[in-house]
Amino acid sequence: MKSSTLLVLLCLQAVLVMGIFAAVAKENAAVGESKAIDINPGQLKCCTNCNFSFSGLYTCDDVKKVCDPVCKKCVAVKTYSGKMFKCTDTFLGMCGPNC
């Protein structure tokens, strides 16, 4: 086989492999978009049990009798003293003052 034919075949194979990788990357990006974190732009009044990350995002693990009005997703938590609530939102910024 001539070297020019071999070179053309290798180039075509490289283009094919790059096309496959591009298609897979595009598919993974579309899947990743649906898993994005929904960030609450508000700020909690106070938070004692703060889970802060270096990315600037935090969640508050406080369990209260009434959920903070800023909270979008509040879940009921069963405790010994009865039904309490916990905000499961992710916030951007620094944790509020202790409650």
UniProtKB/TrEMBL annotation:
Record keyword Hydrolase present: no
GO molecular function: serine-type endopeptidase inhibitor activity
Keywords: Disulfide bond, Protease inhibitor, Signal
InterPro entries documented for this protein: Bowman-Birk_prot_inh, Prot_inh_BBI, WIP1
This protein's GO CC annotations: extracellular region
Signal peptide, first to last residue: 1-25
Superkingdom assignment: Eukaryota
Domain Bowman-Birk serine protease inhibitors family stretches: 46-99
Protein name from the UniProt record: Bowman-Birk serine protease inhibitors family domain-containing protein
